[in-house]
Amino acid sequence: MPARLLLGTVAALVLLATPAAAQRPVFEPDDFIDPGMLTGNLFISRLVVGGVWNQTDHFRPIGGDAGLVILTNSLYVDRYQFDYKHTEFLDRQKPGPLQRCGCSEPIYFPTPPPAGATPAGPPGQRSDTLQLAFYRTDDAARAPVTRRYRVSWSREEIDTVVVSPATGRRVEHRSGHDQSFTFDADTHFSIRGRDVWGSLYFARASRSGTVDKRAQNELAYVSRFPGWAAGPLLFRAKLTVGAISGRGATGLNLINPYFETFWRHDRTKANFHFVWSAERMRSGLEGWRTNHQIAVFLDRTLYLKMFGR
Amino acid sequence: MNECRTRITCAVLLGLSVALASEGQTLPPKTELFIVLDQETCKDVADVYVAYNGRDSAFLARREPPDSCNWKWTTMEPLNPDITPFSLRLGGMGRTTCRRAEARDIRHLEVTFTRRGTGPVVKEMKIEGPNVAYLRDVEVIDEEDISCGEGKRIPGTLFDVQFDVEDLRLQVFEEKKAACSVIVNAIPSLAKAREWATITIGPKQLAPAAVKQALETRLCFAPTFMPVEAIEESLSQPKRSFQITVTKAPPKVK
Fold first, then answer.
1. In chain B, whose CA is at the least distance from the CA of A185?
2. Cβ count within 10 A of residue B192
3. pLDDT per residue over B52-63, tens digit each?
4. Which of B9-18, B40-49, B244-253 has the lowest mean pLDDT?
5. Which A residues 49-108 touch B at CB under 8 Å?
6. Contact A42 B234 (CB under 8 A)
7. Model pLDDT, residue A1
8. Domains of chain B with bracketed CATH
9. Pick from B210, B216, B229: which is nearest to A226 by CB?
10. E strands within A101-232?
11. Any chain B CB within 8 A of the CB of A34?
12. So what CATH class is A3-308?
């Protein structure tokens, strides 16, 4: 889908429809707090520790498993939310040095996925994310719904070393990065008196300074089903459907059911999460493929301060 | 001169009488509500109290004729049947869902109830604590039912509470409307309260309940898992702590 058309569609949907929320990494805990539930401004810092299997980033497979540590810092002021999140990946499979033939048109080994295939995810060891959100509540209604609109910017540094296959000597070093911009908005509407909750998001992920310069646009709707409880466990499900450009497959090429369960250990104040995300994606070369991303992690509040009340 | 005065007086009197007559047509001085219960709902019911227009104030109706399943309640307020929800408190026997009345004429409305709430009946629930609003959010069960909320402020006493057909929301967050506030009947200590009990609920009970209800989309935003500590801290200053005394109706002996 051409980028302009995609951007135009997003703008139209945002203007015409009710607003949206974003496709975050599966191991990132929720940070929505309705400003109506806060009696002042809030700063909260949280730690996330866990592991992820068959990890993807913006539906780009990274391959292998990894441990992770995330530090999230969120500031809630009036109806705004500011976040800074830092992620460290532990034992993430580092790609070996690339080899480049001495041909007139350089060929790299291993060869990056071609344009019609699903691109590989960024192999970086850490990432940083900045977010700005705004909450809107329709005060006139008897039961006013609160929606959040958020923009996110994530960046991951990628160092690439290229060696000669003949001599094994370093012939090139590239300092590149992978970054993404996301706009997401919560949506709410009723069908025959039943509430339908979700998020609409647009994301652009691009990479530069690397051998495989790829970019993609995502436009997707996330249906967020009401959670439920079974004893001490809480459950929730989501279903994402959307289109991702730059994979040689136009139209609907993403279907992603997602299940998560939570358990809170009151004494340690830690929340345990188990996530299963079945990402069914289509590319021009590979057709439909499914990646089962699984994450197990715990999050805990490290520091919390409410002020200005 | 005298003739002129007489004419002016006549004109003023005529004007007044026309104005009063037209006033009488648009605003009737009182409304009579005829309440009909079916045999099953009517069984063992001695007193019927009427709640209307979203207020949790119940007014005693008069059985008419005696020993029938019909009651009559009169109010000096003009009521529009299209927008006024009614429900009943059945004097310790439970409550009904909310329904609209049909107009017999401009002064006479009729409403029929065919079901009592299910589950245990809390005859009285006395709530003491900060002066906040509460809302009894009533479920829709039958086609004729309408969604409604009946509220007031605490401290106060609620009558004929049935958690199986209603949610009791406390406006513990000042900026959040009562209709989107925490449902306290989901708090285990209150749900499990026996025939007579006094329990205290504070931030430590309210915050986990709010987090669970947020995930269940009961608080007017998309499902989310909020950090409990943030909500607990928010409820601590000013401290939201309530003392609730429940008196349940004894279980029915079959």
1. B222
2. 9
3. 999 999 999 999
4. B9-18
5. none
6. yes
7. 45
8. 7-14+26-113 (2.60.40), 122-248 (no CATH)
9. B216
10. 108-109, 126-137, 146-163, 170-191, 194-208, 215-224, 228-230
11. yes
12. mainly beta
